[in-house]
Write a structure and sequence with these properties.
It is a single chain. The protein is mainly alpha-helical. Helix 1 packs across helix 4, helix 5 packs antiparallel against helix 9 and helix 8 crosses helix 9. It is elongated and about 55 Å long. The termini are far apart. The relative contact order is 0.12.
Length: 199
Amino acid sequence: MTEIATVRRSRITPEREAELYAAVLELLREVGYDALTMDAVAARTKSSKATLYRQWGGKPELVVRAMRSQKPGGTADVDTGSLRGDLLTLVTREDDCTMERNSDLMRALAMAVHGNPDLMQAFRELLVEPEMGEFKKVMQRSVDRGEVRADCPALDYIVHMLVGAFATRTMIDQLPPTQAFLTSYIDAVVLPALGVPTP
């Protein structure tokens, strides 16, 4: 299995790249990952398949980069001075409608990952690992500020808790994740697990 290419010579403007990513996500919503083809992306975006392959290498990387393009800013850049402030900022950067649409896409992509090793590799290298790295910086700042003990066992499970909140909200409650739900979840579950007082 080849490593995901991280640097390619780009002749695509940022605006064109954003258009391509929007079209990929639109197709993903319409037909799902398995039925999405590079031919369909090329037709929808009036691009050549050669350009798409030269820029992204293939469908897995194109789809995951399109998903990542929806993230509003870097996680590690969020620094409000408190862990609660940081977490609330992270979960309220998208409005409820956008969060629901992106959550649906992420759930569909996560299901497709299990049957596709190339997609799994792209998902881990381009989305999961960078996000984990950025989130660790947020958590390390909370340790450095003295809010969370460095030996707190819950530190290793914060991402699992937050992802679980997104993933199980629909399955258990049959409701989409919302800012209000995630805020209450952070106060009721995440911060107490870390030993951080809540208001």
